[in-house]
Design brief:
single chain, 15% helix, 5-stranded antiparallel beta sheet, elongated, Immunoglobulin-like, 8 strands, 1 helix, 125 residues, 40% strand
């Protein structure tokens, strides 16, 4: 009877270990990266915005994109790639509507886009 219990224990252990790599959805074992949550989008001045987002398990870098809504219904641009969870976006145009999103990257994997935050930069003083 003890042998039967031992076999069940070994099988349960292998099943647990075999499934635990992918259940988070974040590991290299075939799971995907979750999208970061863009939580802060604060206008600093007429040409600068500060962004901050949530950490994503297993992310190596984050790519920040912005949409300029003065051009053809929102032209999308890559601003930067960073290992940080925040950045300043410089060189924006005063009195302009922008939208910001972030994606997480790990090797060749990319997450879906974060939620979008929109701001209008103020006119120059």
């Amino acid at each position: 009877m003890k042998t039967k219990h031992f076999i069940y224990f070994v099988l349960a252990t292998f099943l647990f270990l075999g499934c635990s790599n992918d259940e988070s959805g974040n590991g290299e074992g075939g799971g995907e990266l979750y999208a970061p949550k863009l939580s802060v989008c604060k206008v600093v001045d007429s040409t600068t915005v500060f962004l901050s987002w949530s950490s994503v398990t297993d992310a190596e870098t984050y790519v920040v994109y912005y949409y300029d809504y003065t051009e053809n219904e929102g032209t999308k641009y890559v601003y930067t790639q960073t290992e940080s969870k925040s950045c300043f976006v410089y060189g924006l145009t005063p009195n302009t509507d922008y939208g910001f999103v972030v994606i997480a990257k790990a090797g060749s994997k990319e997450s879906e886009m974060s939620n979008m935050k929109e701001v209008t930069t103020p006119a120059e003083y």
